[in-house]
């Protein structure tokens, strides 16, 4: 039997924001206020267990229901907690180009290393307008831009051809990929130097194996070390171990991101059971019920030790 080969050189695009990024929840107090102390403790916990990047104010971070001021305060607090031990990417995407430009321009001042910019939602702009939106935001930003392709939420995807054109902008450097279009992803990987990050936890190993830079993981809120171990095993040439780890995490991935509940709801329910900072979700979301939380904890506890 031939043993897995450990490559001496890697064709992988350098990871501008790290390799294992957690799409971090935003902790709130019992009354629903921003819990900056909890955010600092959670961020430090995630970084100590293998995350070299954190995405704040994203989908899992409940960005639609936090204010601009709260977003900036969260970035500043987490930067204070983790220092230079992790890259910080902050979500600045809105349905309004002018508002997004304002948030992007302020992100670097708050301490972010990059901005995550989602396709404008609800208005469903055509591709030339999508491209113009991203260019305007990138022009205004003092830090690099990660495009966020999640058509299931926005109603509009960033087509591969649009990605390829946008890759020419010097500040557009990365993509969080929730497109569920592997062929499209491969086309952009083959045609650009954009750093691709798997945004769906079931795709972490699959996309990393074809050249992605890493992942932006919701499941990493609860099991950062397991997510980091998948990529570490692949980097070490142990593809069998990487596959084993990806499959082992699958039941928890399904429970957290494949159910009817948003990942924000399930992540906060599980973190609460684990005694980690989380707090309630903000309306219109509703908290998970006890049975759901019990099921999440059972799948967490069934994970094999690393």
TrEMBL record:
Enzyme class per UniProt: lyase
Gene of this entry: dapA
Molecular-function GO term, any one: 4-hydroxy-tetrahydrodipicolinate synthase activity
Pathway participation: Amino-acid biosynthesis; L-lysine biosynthesis via DAP pathway; (S)-tetrahydrodipicolinate from L-aspartate: step 3/4
Lineage per the UniProt record: Bacteria, Bacillati, Actinomycetota, Actinomycetes, Kitasatosporales
Keywords assigned by UniProt, alphabetized: Amino-acid biosynthesis, Cytoplasm, Diaminopimelate biosynthesis, Lyase, Lysine biosynthesis, Schiff base
Function per UniProt: Catalyzes the condensation of (S)-aspartate-beta-semialdehyde [(S)-ASA] and pyruvate to 4-hydroxy-tetrahydrodipicolinate (HTPA).
Active site, UniProt feature: 148 (proton donor/acceptor), 176 (schiff-base intermediate with substrate)
The protein's name: 4-hydroxy-tetrahydrodipicolinate synthase
Domain of life: Bacteria
Reaction catalysis annotation: L-aspartate 4-semialdehyde + pyruvate = (2S,4S)-4-hydroxy-2,3,4,5-tetrahydrodipicolinate + H2O + H(+)
Keyword Nucleus included in the entry's annotation: no
SUPFAM superfamilies hit by this protein: Aldolase
Main location: cytoplasm
Subunit structure: Homotetramer; dimer of dimers.
Ion transport listed as a keyword: no
InterPro entries xrefs: Aldolase_TIM (IPR013785), DapA (IPR005263), DapA-like (IPR002220), Schiff_base-form_aldolases_AS (IPR020625), Schiff_base-form_aldolases_CS (IPR020624)
Site for Part of a proton relay during catalysis, residues: 59, 122
The EC number(s) this enzyme carries: 4.3.3.7
Localization per record: Cytoplasm
